[in-house]
Structures are given as C-alpha cells and as structure tokens.
Design brief:
The structure holds 2 protein chains of 2 kinds. Chain A is α/β, with parallel strands linked by helices. Chain A is built from 13 helices and 10 strands. Chain A folds into 2 domains: 165 residues, 3-Layer(aba) Sandwich (D-Maltodextrin-Binding Protein, domain 2); 99 residues, D-Maltodextrin-Binding Protein, domain 2, CATH 3.40.190.120. Chain A has a 5-stranded mixed beta sheet. In chain A, strands 3-10-4 form a 3-stranded antiparallel beta sheet. A two-stranded parallel sheet of chain A has the order 1-2. In chain A, helix 7 links the parallel strand 6 and strand 7. In chain A, helix 4 packs across helix 5. The radius of gyration of chain A is 23 Å and the shape is elongated. The model of chain A has no long low-confidence stretch (mean pLDDT 90). Chain B has a single domain, classed as MetI-like fold, CATH 1.10.3720.10. The model of chain B has no long low-confidence stretch (mean pLDDT 91).
Chain lengths: 308, 233
Amino acid sequence: MRLSRTLALGASLLVLVSACATGGSSKPTIKIGSDGFYESQIVAELYAQVLENAGYKVERSLGLGARKVTSPAIESGQIDLKPEYLGSGLGYYDKTRPSGDPAANATALGEILKAKGGGISVLAWSPGEDTNAFVVRKETAELYKLARMSDLAAVQDKLTWGLPPECETNALCAGALKDAYQISWPPRSLKLLGACGSEIAAALEGKAVDIGELCSTQPIIGSSRVGLVALADDKATQPAENIAPIVRADFLAKLSAADRTAFGALLDAVSAKLTTEALVQLGVAHEVDKQDVADIARAFLKDLGLIK
Amino acid sequence: MDTLAAMLAWLAAAERWQGADGIPVRLAEHLAIALPSVLAAALVALPAGAWIGHTGRHATVAINVAGLGRAIPSYAVLAIVLPISLRLSPEWGLSVIPTFTAMTLLAIPPILVGTYAGLRGVDPEVVEAARGLGLTERQILLGVELPLALAGLAGGLRTASVQVVATATLGAVVAYGGLGRYIIDGIARNEDDRLLGGVLLVAGLAILVELAFALVQRALVPRGLRAARVRAR
C-alpha cells in the first residue's frame, strides 16, 4: 500500500514538473476564423501560417459564413482571431460611423469592440483595402466619357445597372448613388445580382449589364482579358475597408508580455504587405489560377520571407 | 411567434400585391419559367421513356443517365451555362436561358423514369393480346400501353413539376424574378419577414401543384381500370 502510494505521488510530481518545464515556453492554441469569401479565408490563412511558423498551434475555422455568423463567433469566444474590414465591421455595429478615413474607422471600431466579448482588440490595418467599386467595360467608359462616379448622372438611363439585392436598403449603395451621385432609384434598367460575385462579373463581361458593383480586389478587375474600369468614388461615399486582425483580449492575456508584443509584430508584418495590388494578386491566384487557399498563403509568405 | 407575425404582416401588406415586386408579378414570373421547363422536359423525356418502356431496350443506360442527372445540382448547371448563354445573347443569356436549362434538366429524370415505370407496369398479357389481334407496335403503344400507363406518366410529371416549382427559386441568383426573388433579397437585406414570406409562397405553390396533379392523376385512370378495381374488391 505504501509503495503504490509513493509511486503514485512520484508519478504525479513528475507530470507536474514536466508540465511546468514545458508550460512556460509552449504557446497557447489559437482559434482563427474567417468569413466565407475567398479573400477573408486567404488573409486568415496568412495569419495562421505566420503564427504556426512562430510556434503557435492553430485551430482553423475558415469560411464560417457572413459577418452575421463570425462576429457572434468571436464575441462568444468560439474563435479568438479573425480578419476584419474596418468600414463594414464598424457598420455592422453602428451604421452611422463608417467614413473614408481608415484611422477613424479603426478607432471607432476599437471603442465598440472593447465592450464586446470581454474585450476585443483591433491590431494594425493593411494599406490595401477591398471596398465596393462601380465598374464598367472600357468601351462603355470611352463611349460615355466615364472616369468618375459623378459622370454617371448624365447617362444613367442609357446603362443597364447590375446591383446587389440589398442595394435598395443599403446606405452605401442606393443611398450613396441617390444622394451623392444623383442617380434616381430604381434605375430604369436594373438587374439584381449579388455583389462581388462571379455572376455579376460574368454579366459585366458578357454585356448583360453595363455597370456593376464589384469588390475592388476582384480578380476580373485586374484581368487583361476583359478591359474593365473602376469609376473613381470622387464624393468618397464608400468607407475605408482596410483589413485589420481583431483578437480577443482573453487570448492575449494568456501570453506573456514579451509574447504579446511578438504576436502583434507577427501580424503587423503580414498586414503591412497587404496592399491593394497584393490583394488583387491573391484573388487572381484563387479565382483565375484556382490554387488552394493554403498554397496561396504559403507562397505569399515565403516570397516575402515572412515564414521559413 | 414574432417572426410568424412579421411574416404574415409582410404578406398582408398592400404594397405586396402591387407593382413589379408584387406577389402577382413574381408568381407569374415563377410560372413563366417553370411551365415551359416542364413542357420542354416532357417533350424529350416522354417519347424517350415511352420507347424504352415499350421495347424494354437500353433501360439500364437510360435510368442510370437519369439518376446521374438527379445528382447534378441545379446551381452547378446555372454556373456552367451562364458564360455560354451570355455569349449567345446578352439579353436572354443572363437570367432566362440558364434558369430554363437548369429546370428542364431537373425535370427530365422524373418524367423519364415515371413514363418508363408506367409502361413496364402494364400487364404483358394485355400487350400480347393486342399483338395477337394484329395491332401494329405503334398502335399498341399509343392505343393500349399509354392509356394504361397514364397514371404512372402523370406521376412522373407531378414529381417533375413540384421539383421545378420548388427549385425555380434559383433563378433569382442570376437576376431572374419569380418567388425566389423574395428569398434571395430577404437573405441579402437581412429581412426575415421577406425571406419567410417567400418560403411560404413557394411551399404553398408547390403543394398546390401537388394537389392539382393528384386530382388529375385520379381522373386519368381509365374508366375500365377503375371499374375493374371496384369489381375485384
């Protein structure tokens, strides 16, 4: 009896000691999530790989769904980290605050998120952004002399508009078109097609619509096969949509002070490289070259020397 | 219960029944794509099913092809057809051609299988007797087998119609109207009353179609068979 008890004591002490020995240097597991569309998944995968390269264990929940799903997920702790678009992320909580200034958006979002889910931090944002762009074919731009959104009012009835179903009730869409650009609602010829989707891109290319609302980093915009022109948002109606990692405070609390700084630096290094051109290229790799999200992320990070 | 009340309020609202986004227009658009699709599918699948059912040849190939057809999601058909149809016609190639194609392909398997099964279910002794009487194969098929197989045929058309009515909602993804517009727009705009209202309308229409066909099927059973069934009891 005494022998087995001694052995049991010894064994548990051993486990305790070994746990203490590794506990200090092992990094906690981090749960990373993303929205459904490819760009959000790729950026989340960039975060994941850079953190794995630094010794973190990552549990991925990529492609969870729309913000309706991912915001509650991070607020409830189902995920610890996700990429967030400053303008839309802010607009999700407060429709009135997004502006064309990324710093203002980030500050406002940070204020709101401080009170959510026990505290969520907004880290450094990317120089590039993926915002709404109204795009026409090159011939249309030349025919009607279109370079800026303000040029549309004069020829609005001559165009077939491809707009998302939520445009009517979206201040950034119908609101902006009506108030800033004098487009009457609804347009005389309107086709409802999901924003940033492949259907609207195909419709624009196939001439079923003359002007479509795309995402500014959608690969087709950078494609040489189809000549597309994104009209300049001269009245700055669209919010700044730079991408920033948002992370739960209770995860950061698990890290030592030094690790916390290093964690921020790792993600900042990734964000710094996400220019709009880089985002378009990532999109081309996914949509045109049909590469895997993981492979795209790895190639991007390796090329920049951000991972081994 | 709040959601239910909201949905009912949405359905009952006056503006719901007028204008280009009103229920009458959307319903008409829905039927305008569903009906021709089922008809087109019948034009292909009825003769094919009848011929295979009558001769008994190539049945395995046909049934398996039909099964494969069921496995292809209609949304995939939309995505495949879209770039091709856009090149053919920018005007019709966006919404109408892809949706019509997807719905027709969806309707073919049930009609094919229903027709084939209906014909195989005809008592072979009746067919033999007809042959013995000197009727040509064509006369047998059209005058003997098809009337006896009518219930099975109608069953295939019924399944196809209900499936097409329920799935034509997909057209809204490629800017078509129809009842699917309420569902797609409801999701996009985060308007649950619109979404659920659309769902209720589509389900209601599908059930109506199902019931209408049930009545038609009953009416189609030849008087002779009906009498025979009663006597047998």
